[in-house]
User: What shape does this take?
Amino acid sequence: MSRGSRADARTDPTSRTPEPREDRGVSARTPRVPMDGLSLPRTEERERVTVHDRVYHLRDSEARTLATVGAFRLVPADQLDERRGDFWSGDLQRLDAQGLIERKTITVNHQPMRLVVLTREGQALLAAKQDQDAGRPRQQYHAGLVKPREADHDAQLY
Assistant: This one.
């Protein structure tokens, strides 16, 4: 007890704010990318997404991958979906086939690093599908590998 018989917030377990629960199936080291501001599919069924004169077919996991890669500029491919052994297949293969991402391998500290970056088309899709809510700051999405020398640093940000 502290002065005046008030409970000390540092020692009173009832005064602590509860720690947020982690979602099951999401790695503790995998950042969560908010999809609130994007008008993209939220189901496992592929849906038609039209941007200007282009038509894409995306599902929730592919939309999340696009938002993640765009927000962080580049992401190590093996960290996008840790449940799959071959990270060049599945969502990444479909996104690459539609021209929304590029898969690259660069050398960092004499080790090959497989990366995923958005293409200009992927960046345009995210920008076009971003809600125009004036009360919310807009997320910046990045395309391409700007400075390969800084790829290691950028990959560590993720």
Observations:
- The two ends are 43 Å apart (CA to CA).
- Strands lie at 47-51, 54-58, 74-76, 101-108, 111-118.
- Residues 15-30 have pLDDT under 50 and may be disordered.
